[in-house]
Design brief:
The chain is α/β, with parallel strands linked by helices. 38% of the residues lie in helices and 24% in strands. It contains 7 helices and 7 strands. The two termini are 26 Å apart.
Length: 221
């Protein structure tokens, strides 16, 4: 079982923010994120008996899907910065009868509380964009260490284009001026994955309210 871990100081504001909005998060975001998240879950193709880590699981929708897919012999671990989200996800899993397949931990994704070569797959949906760009390479390296050789990273992310559209420019402006409310930033996800040594086996370009979204699966060596 993974230990509970207090997030590092730079993430305390994120913890407080997500604790505040945890009960209304689905109303604010799930309707727009649902289709892209489902596409990402299908792409990473979790199989019965696998060990899977979800980073930044929020209210637990993907945890429920992953726990169903790994079956009774598989295992799912979730790490999130918000104890409010953990409470909601735990309640969801209890209601669906899947709680015995899932372990939840409070933690900072920059310091994953798990051993190397533990998971067959890692899933992240609208989470990597929360990281400062300079820290993303270390995060992806930590995920690679957590994966078994040939393991898969399933990623759903807002992406930055060379020539952003008007919606993206507005979103980026809001992120610069009110980052505590518009906390994600579009990133060049493909470049980060390539630089970290992931081999992309599947990609799909989607859109949420005009914002470009990448669904990708990358494998480790």
């Amino acid at each position: 079982m993974m230990p509970q871990e207090t997030p590092a100081a730079p993430w305390q504001h994120a913890r407080h923010f997500y604790n505040r909005i945890s009960r209304s998060y689905d109303l604010l975001a799930d309707a727009s994120e649902h289709a892209a998240r489902t596409r990402g879950l299908d792409a990473v193709a979790v199989q019965p008996g696998e060990r899977v880590l979800e980073i930044g699981f929020g209210t637990g929708h993907a945890l429920e899907a992953l726990a169903t897919r790994v079956g009774a012999k598989g295992r799912v671990v979730g790490v999130d910065v918000s104890d409010g989200m953990i409470d909601l996800a735990r309640r969801r899993l209890a209601q669906t009868g899947l709680a015995t397949r899932v372990t939840l931990a409070l933690g900072d994704l920059r310091r994953l509380p798990c051993r190397d070569r533990t998971f067959d797959a890692v899933f992240m949906s609208f989470t990597l964009e929360l990281i400062e760009p300079g820290e993303i390479p270390d995060v992806l390296a930590g995920i690679a260490r957590a994966l078994v050789p040939g393991g898969r990273l399933g990623l759903v992310s807002l992406v930055a284009r060379e020539h952003p559209n008007a919606v993206t420019r507005l979103y980026q402006w809001l992120h610069r001026h009110v980052p505590h409310f518009v906390d994600c930033r579009p990133i060049d996800a493909r470049r980060f994955l390539d630089a970290a040594g992931y081999r992309l086996t599947e990609t799909a370009d989607l859109s949420i309210w005009g914002l470009p979204v990448l669904v990708a699966v990358g494998t480790t060596g």
